[in-house]
Write a structure and sequence with these properties.
heterodimer; A: alpha/beta; abc type-2 transporter like fold; 2 domains; five-stranded mixed β-sheet; 14 helices; 5 strands; disordered N terminus; B: alpha/beta; Rossmann fold; Alpha-Beta Plaits; four-stranded antiparallel β-sheet; 28% strand; elongated
Chain lengths: 379, 310
């Protein structure tokens, strides 16, 4: 018993020495789990709050203001846009500036006083069915509460004699993804995840692998420049990744029946921009990391994981803690996610999508430049 | 006199506090086979890598084909062929695919490519293996493929870093026949080796030790200048046990067992009788003590194992 335990202890001690001396094992053994804990702990929260709400108040009465303040004081909604024009709401939903809109009709207060009942319209962006479903539930709840208060006040005024029917009816309308089908939401987003994953896996090992196998030596002794070598590798992987884009679009369209409403050309172009970032990261790690294995792990951690968890793929960015939200601004997939969903589900084009495309392009250029320059030919 | 194909002047490479190459100077005449000898870690590969533009010298000057290796490493790379110590072609590519890859890297015109690849494969004798994965071939064939890849772009100068290590004698001979042919065509070859029979085939040699050149010249020159004065071949029974006695005898520089004989490097001619006497008195039946000619191996042992250079 003691003998076997001392042996176990010896092995344990030996393993600790290995870990202490090898920064790679430290990366895998400590940094990775911690990073995952943080990402899951903060990013993965299904509580949806501060849903960006647009408000059209055609009633402009005490009653309508009470309803709107019921939305804001709930904490679930944050009014970010007020307008008198319905068209403004449409545009804001298109651009993704708001996730939901509340439309209060002109006759709202009058109808409640006179007929004892009215209805309000709630528009939801269904391209993110998670948020849309939750938002619809919240909105119905808030309207229902309001309705109950109105009924109670009226009952109190009338001396509590008659029981009353509901005062307010929410008319919920979901846009873009009318059935709130999650496939419609997942598939366009999946393009970003798949591209990030494949390019990370494919490129990250390439330089480190050459170094490990010794083939870099022959290449370095040839007149091929570092830039040529990098670009050659990138070109190969870009081709492969574009095949992935086509594959995902076809399967999404034909198998899952996901609508494709926008421009295929824009999708191809923006995929190209996104790929530059994903491949650039893979190459960066491949050139900097000592072995193929660490390069792959590092690339997966920085491309695949954030593109699932920090991109708005599953979890709306607006519900994340502020710090995490700031981190997402350097996650290329975050912008690409908006672009693919916009193209697939909303059918919007450059006019609406130029801001995320511009952000993505800026990020891609920086990452790619870092990737290319990190490979030095001298060995 | 034509310009040297390779010229080194006081070449130094330091890695931190460690000096891997210490003021190395030599020159290589065009079209010759130049041998690089020295124990492992003596700085041979580091020197070659500086000459190929893979490593920047810490100080000193080197020119390959008239191009300065520090100022224009890429220019050097264009005109040399390089075969590294470790097989550095792609094991998951076939012979032909590897050659096609390097034909592309060296920008060999497309219409010449196939002919050039056929030529190289025929010449190095790998044509039968054209479709074989490099990883599936024997070390000998692999090395010939590597030489082929280094020759594709018809360089005037080739650097071969231990091209025959781990290769069987027949393949080694074949490899050296190839090197001889290259030399006959006017190609300069700088070759590192641990095999003395190979060193013997070089036009000139440099012997390195702890980063320095300790001897240079033709094989014959080296033997004259650096071989121990007397080499004795001693035949006796129980040579392993006899070795200890021989090593303790004064006037013996070095001794080693070679089969049933002892190979002894000695200070003077008078040692033969002393050895005979010592061995006989120790109970060894000494049947023969013969003086033999020194070889490069004796020179190598003398220079590589002797007193450290000043």
């Amino acid at each position: 018993m003691t003998r076997s335990r001392s042996r176990t202890m010896a092995i344990l001690r030996k393993e600790f020495i290995h870990i202490r001396r090898d920064p790679r094992s430290l990366l895998i053994a400590v940094i990775m789990p911690v990073a995952l804990l943080f990402i899951y702990g903060y990013g993965v929260s299904s509580d949806i709050t501060d849903i960006r709400l647009g408000v059209v108040d055609w009633s402009r009465t005490r009653e309508s203001r009470e309803l709107i303040s019921a939305f804001t004081s709930s904490g679930y909604f944050a009014v970010v846009l007020r307008s008198d024009r319905y068209a403004d709401m449409e545009r804001a939903l298109d651009a993704g500036d708001i996730r939901a809109a509340l439309v209060v009709p002109a006759a709202y207060a009058a109808d409640i006083t006179r007929k004892g009942a009215s209805s309000v319209q709630i528009l939801l962006d269904g391209s993110d069915p998670n948020t849309a479903t939750v938002a619809a539930g919240y909105a119905e709840g808030i309207v229902g509460n309001r309705s109950a208060i109105i009924v109670r006040e009226r009952t109190l005024r009338s001396g509590g004699a008659r029981r009353s029917r509901a005062a307010l009816t929410p008319e919920v309308r979901v846009w873009y993804n009318e059935d709130l089908r999650s496939a419609n939401f997942i598939v366009p987003g999946l393009i970003a995840v798949i591209l990030a994953m494949t390019s990370a896996l494919l490129t990250s090992g390439t330089i480190a692998g050459e170094r490990e196998r010794g083939t870099i030596e022959q290449l370095a002794a040839s007149p091929a420049s570092a830039r040529e070598i990098m670009l050659g590798k990138i070109a190969a992987y870009v081709t492969l990744a574009f095949a992935d884009v086509v594959l995902v679009v076809l399967v999404g369209r034909l198998w899952f029946g996901v609508p494709f409403r926008g421009s295929p050309l824009l999708l191809v172009l923006s995929s190209g921009v996104f790929l530059m970032a994903a491949l650039g990261l893979g190459l960066l790690f491949s050139a900097r990391m000592p072995t193929q294995q660490t390069a792959i792990v590092a690339a997966l951690m920085t491309t695949m994981v954030p593109s699932i968890l920090l991109s708005g793929f599953f979890f709306p960015i607006s519900s994340m803690p502020k710090v995490v939200q700031v981190i997402t601004t350097v996650v290329p997939a975050r912008y690409f996610m908006v672009i693919t969903r916009g193209i697939f589900l909303k059918g919007i084009g450059l006019a609406e999508l130029w801001p995320p495309i511009l952000s993505l392009a800026a990020l891609s250029v920086v990452i790619m430049a870092a990737g290319i320059s990190s490979f030095k030919k001298r060995v | 006199m034509s310009e040297a194909a390779i010229l080194c002047r006081d070449l130094v490479k330091r890695f931190g506090a460690f000096t891997a190459v210490d003021r190395v100077s030599f020159e290589v005449k065009p079209g010759t086979v130049f041998g690089f000898l020295g124990p492992n870690g003596s700085g041979k590969s580091t020197t070659i890598r500086m000459l190929c533009g893979l490593l920047l010298p810490t100080s000193g000057r080197a020119a390959v084909g008239g191009v300065d290796v520090a100022r224009n490493p890429e220019g050097v790379k264009r005109q040399i062929g390089y075969m590294s110590q470790r097989f550095s072609l792609y094991q998951d590519l076939t012979v032909r695919e590897n050659l096609e890859f390097y034909a592309g890297v060296y920008r060999i015109p497309r219409r010449e490519r196939q002919a050039r690849i056929e030529e190289v494969m025929t010449r190095t004798g790998v044509i039968a293996d054209a479709g074989t994965l490099a990883g599936d071939m024997s070390v000998g064939v692999r090395q010939r493929l590597a030489l082929g890849a280094a020759l594709l772009h018809r360089p005037a100068i080739v650097f071969l870093d231990e091209p025959t290590s781990g290769v069987d004698p027949i393949s080694r001979r074949r490899f050296w026949t190839l090197i001889g042919e290259l030399s006959a065509e006017g190609i300069t070859a700088l070759v590192t080796t641990h095999h003395m029979d190979e060193a013997q085939r070089c036009d000139e040699l440099v012997l390195m030790r702890t980063g320095r050149v300790v001897a240079r010249g033709t094989p014959a020159d080296l033997i004259v200048a650096h071989a121990p004065p007397v080499i004795l071949s001693v035949r006796c029974d129980r040579p392993q046990e006899a070795l200890a006695i021989v090593q303790k005898t004064s006037g013996v520089r070095r001794a080693a067992v070679r089969g049933v004989r002892l190979h002894v490097a000695a200070e003077d001619d008078g040692l033969a009788e002393r050895l005979d006497a010592e061995l006989t008195s120790a109970g060894h039946a000494c049947t023969e003590v013969r003086r033999i000619g020194a070889t490069l191996e004796d020179v190598f042992m003398e220079l590589a194992m002797g007193e450290a250079p000043p």
